[in-house]
Amino acid sequence: MRVLTSSAQHLVLQLRPWSLWLFGGAFTLFGLLPALLIAEVATLECHRTAQPPSCELSRAGLLKNDRHLILLDHFQGVEVQESRSDDSSTYRVVLLTSEGDRPLTGYYSSGYAGKARQARQIDAFLTDLSQTQLVIQQDSRWLGYLFTLIFSGSGLLVLCLMGNVVTCEFDKLGQSFKLTRRGLLGSKIIKHPLHHIQTVHLETSHGSKGSTTYRVALDLKNGDRLPITTYYSSGRKDKQKTADQISAFLGLTTSTPLSLWNLDLREFLRLLTGGQQVRQQSIVRYRETLEREPGNLQTQMNLIAALWLEGQRDEAIATVEDLKSSLTAQGKAGEAAKLDDYFQTVMDKAPDTK
Asked: Taking the domains of the chain in order of start, what are their residue ranges?
């Protein structure tokens, strides 16, 4: 979140979700393409008794209304064209004439059998002089509108539900807190006395494929938890920074859940597979970081994992105990208790090589 105002008495933070706006807007605009390009009614109407005998090919859609007159003696045949991708094929019927090829539709679609049946009907009319009339129509409006509904609808949902401008205002003079979420569906304002805020919490959500997302929430003294945003998103560092800014202004602590995912998964895999030299260099780097930032929880947990993986297990255990004591002294007894679970997870993940 961006800092709009920061003073001893007033803190205003604001989130403008540009990435969600771009994503939702792109999906919404992209979703319009099927309605514009695919949704059409293609009609081939042939009359042998007309003067001259001819067929009219028309395609009507939102942006087009094309009509082409083809004389019967200009026909050279009909075929089903195929468009191949890596794992599938799509098809369309093409009229072969002396003036060039005329596709029945402006797009390829699945279903070879239906296209082949249309091609046989056209070929039968061209060769059977007793047939005086032929009408073939292909209506793809429902398909185009369905794709538009899915893609544009998804984009609009993102914009409406997640695209809010979020503003947090903490006022020590007025002893008030105001959270404003303003979006396409209107604005929602939540107010609380400032002293109702007990802690600032960094919430995590774990995906089924191992991904982790975060959001900042305020724990109130009545037991309620008020999330700043209604959704979780990636970027732990930014969320942690916001939580720390609020905590520092209010003189509170930031509650950070402990789990394996507080250790950057890429960093853990690097430590696990990088060999002795990588782990030893990482241990030195972690310790240098902790000299500058002794309260950096993630670096402390990275150090614990690196020490354990490198076989310096007594030191890893001692570091865990020191961190538990530090968390307890900060009034974070619950998190100190969770540290044992985290450490057990690290031990379970580590190969027993030493």
From this structure: 2-17+164-257, 40-139, 261-349
Average pLDDT estimate for 299-306: 85
Residue 247: φ, ψ to 5° = -60, -45
- Residue 93 zone, left/alpha/beta (φ > 0; ψ -120 to 50; rest): beta
- The CA distance from 267 to 270, in Å, is 5
Distance CA 344, CA 347 (A): 5
Nearest residue to 66 via CA among 56, 53, 51, 78: 56
* Neighbour tally for 186: CB within 10 Å: 8
Instruction: Name the phi and psi angles at 195, rounded to 5.
Output: -75, -5
Supply φ then ψ for residue 55, to 5 degrees.
-125, 145
Q: What is the largest CA-CA distance in the chain?
A: 99
The total number of residues written for the chain in this structure: 354
**CATH number belonging to domain 2-17+164-257:** 2.30.29
Distance CA 110, CA 161 (A): 34
Q: What's the pTM?
A: 0.59
CA–CA dist 120, 127 (Å, integer)? 10
Which residue has better confidence, 256 or 71?
71
Q: Are 216 and 236 in contact (CB under 8 A)?
A: no
Question: What pLDDT, on a 0 to 100 scale, did the predictor assign at position 261?
Answer: 42
